[in-house]
Write a structure and sequence with these properties.
The complex is a heterodimer of chains A (113) and B (381). With 113 residues, chain A is mainly α. Chain A has five helices and three strands, in the order ββααααβα. In chain A, strand 1 (5-7) and strand 2 form a beta hairpin. Chain A is elongated. The longest helix of chain B is centred in the N-terminal third of the chain and has 21 residues, at 58-78. Chain B has two domains: 2-45 and 151-219 and 312-369, 3-Layer(bba) Sandwich (FAD/NAD(P)-binding domain), CATH 3.50.50.60; 86-144 and 221-309, D-Amino Acid Oxidase, subunit A, domain 2 (D-Amino Acid Oxidase, Chain A, domain 2, 2-Layer Sandwich). Chain B contains eight helices and 20 strands. In chain B, the strands form four sheets. Chain B has an eight-stranded mixed beta sheet, with helices on both faces. A six-stranded mixed beta sheet of chain B has the order 9-3-2-13-20-19. In chain B, helix 1 (14-25) packs parallel to helix 5 and helix 1 runs parallel beside helix 8 (336-353). Chain B is of the alpha/beta class and 381 residues long. Chain B has helices at 14-25, 58-78, 96-111, 121-127, 150-163, 207-212, 277-290, 336-353; strands at residues 2-4, 7-10, 31-34, 50-51, 89-93, 117-119, 138-142, 146-147, 167-169, 174-180, 184-189, 192-196, 199-201, 221-230, 240-243, 248-252, 258-262, 298-309, 316-319, 326-330. Classes of the chains: A mainly alpha (113), B alpha/beta (381). The A-B interface holds A 27, 29-30, 33-34, 36, 39-41, 43, 87-89, 92-96, 98-99, 101-102, 105 and B 37-41, 45, 151, 155, 170-171, 230-232, 255, 275, 277-278, 280-282, 284-285, 287-288, 294-303.
Chain lengths: 113, 381
């Protein structure tokens, strides 16, 4: 059987996700940084929901479970299925565009003063 | 949890887990470490990962040099890849004052075994093609400086400490510490109470608050520092590039991202770790000015962490007079990660033997009650 890729930016499989959990990385912030899931160019827009679903459902992908239902299942017992911190920029932003936006903000601020 | 321990460590950052490991390696049993969030939730997990030996004061040069010697062997020793890469540190010099300081300091760095050298602009251009050298008069370069992935260092130490029996308690906050008769401490946490004869307080910017539970006054202040990361690019940049004057730095990670930051001299002291657009504007401008081709590159994320800044921007390490069994390390002022292997090892020596193999008396808390403070001119931020 082939691998199921859960994070396309960083090329991470669902087996690697479960392996991280088995090694003791049991909160979403640690899982994210240990596996690399949600740290690529999409910043989780493609992979995070799949990851949370997998964490909630465990190995049984045929019947997705809610977070409270999954609390009793192994090997994911004790996982708090929640969102990691979301930070700016919301979409990738080119450095020259950021500089332009900054100049505009300064103009606006000084124009009003 | 209601138990006794031989050692309680407060803080699951790099200094805490590394010291837990070195204490266990020296044979100490029954060590408990408390972290209020996950490992690296504080400053370690938010730092830029830079490791440099180019410092102005002997104490920093020696500590950083010995840390690099330890980082070189750490992946092997811990059985965990810490992604240590010696791409060097390139300090860009744009004014005469910095030129004087750095050209006078390099011979001392060399004497102490740090292979730093002064570069002319043409040498800089061949080391890092693409840099804008219009305002750059020289550079200082040390090829054995580098970077490591802070989380990997943390996890590596934590795994190795756990294999040696250290009990790491995550999501457990220390609420109260009180001294009991017979020279022990009662440490009350959100998950129970521990009695211990020894405490190591290494809680980053919160070290000051934990110390105040024992009536110890630590004169550090937290300051927010922000970092941004770009989309991954093909490898093109070996050294970490920094400007001491501007508090600006950037490097390329092993995944290809450009990771960097810039300090704000007007940033007030606060414990905020919120991200600001103002930082992003200033960072983008400094990055494009220094490396024009990066204007086309996209930033994918920014975050912030706290520097625990001491009055002289030098670490505070050691014991406190009159508080037996208490040890701390804090006030790293933005260079705690790079010094952590040697600091943690020295703390483990101090705790188990009362002595250290490198003198650290000059870093004791006592210095702030004596007249005159010396600041290392190589501090960034």
């Amino acid at each position: 059987m082939g691998k199921t890729i859960i994070c396309h930016c960083e090329d991470i499989s669902i087996e690697e996700l479960f392996s991280a959990v088995e090694q003791g990385y049991k909160d979403i912030e640690s899982i994210k940084r240990y596996t690399g899931i949600a740290t690529g160019t999409c910043q989780g827009k493609c992979c995070l929901i799949q990851t949370l679903r997998a964490l909630a459902s465990g190995d049984d992908r045929s019947s997705p479970k809610t977070a409270s239902e999954s609390a009793a299942s192994t090997p994911l017992k004790g996982i708090a299925v929640k969102m990691p911190t979301i930070r700016q920029p919301v979409i990738p932003a080119r450095i020259d565009r950021i500089i332009k936006a900054g100049e505009k903000a300064v103009k606006k601020a000084t124009g009003k003063a | 949890m209601n138990r006794t321990a031989d050692m309680v460590i407060i803080g699951g950052g790099v200094n805490g887990v590394a010291c837990a490991y070195y204490l266990a390696r020296r044979g100490m049993k029954n060590i408990v470490l408390f972290e209020k969030g996950y490992l690296g939730y504080g400053a370690t997990g938010r730092c830029g990962g830079g490791i440099r030996q180019q410092w102005g004061m002997d104490e920093n040069i020696i500590l950083a040099r010995d840390s690099v010697r330890m980082f070189e062997k750490l992946s092997h020793e811990l059985g965990f890849n810490i992604f240590f890469r010696q791409g060097g540190y390139l300090i860009l010099i744009s004014d005469e004052r910095d030129y004087d300081l750095i050209s006078k300091t390099i011979p001392r760095q060399n004497e102490l075994g740090v292979p730093a050298e002064l570069l002319e602009p043409k040498d800089i251009a061949s080391l890092v093609p693409g840099l804008n050298l219009k305002t750059i008069i020289a550079g200082a370069y040390c090829p054995t400086d580098g970077t490591a992935y802070p989380y990997a260092v943390l996890w590596g130490y934590a795994e190795a400490a756990k294999r040696r029996g250290v009990d790491i308690r995550l999501h457990t906050e220390v609420l109260i510490i009180s001294r009991k008769s017979g020279g022990t401490y009662e440490v009350t946490t959100t998950n129970g109470t521990v009695h211990t004869p020894r405490i190591l307080n290494v809680a980053g910017a919160a070290t000051r608050n934990t110390a105040s539970m024992l009536g110890i006054v630590i004169p550090t202040k937290p300051y927010r520092h922000e970092i941004a990361v770009s989309e991954p690019l093909k490898s093109f940049l070996d050294p970490m590039v920094i400007s001491i004057r501007k508090g600006f730095y950037f490097s390329q990670s092993l995944r290809g991202e450009i990771v960097g930051g810039i300090g704000d001299p007007d940033e007030p002291s606060s414990s905020s770790t919120a991200s600001s657009p103002e930082f992003l504007f200033r960072y983008a401008e400094a990055l494009r000015k220094t490396f024009p081709a990066l204007g086309k590159v996209r930033i994918i994320r920014q975050w912030a962490g706290l520097y625990d800044v001491s009055p002289d921007a030098r670490p505070i390490i050691g014991t406190v007079d009159g508080v037996d069994g208490y040890y701390h390390a804090c006030g790293f002022s933005g260079h705690g990660f790079m010094l952590s292997p040697v600091v943690a090892k020295l703390l483990s020596e101090l705790i188990t033997t009362g002595k250290t193999s490198i003198p650290i008396d000059s870093l004791n808390l006592k210095r702030f009650s004596e007249p005159g403070l010396t600041r290392d001119p190589y501090v960034v931020g």
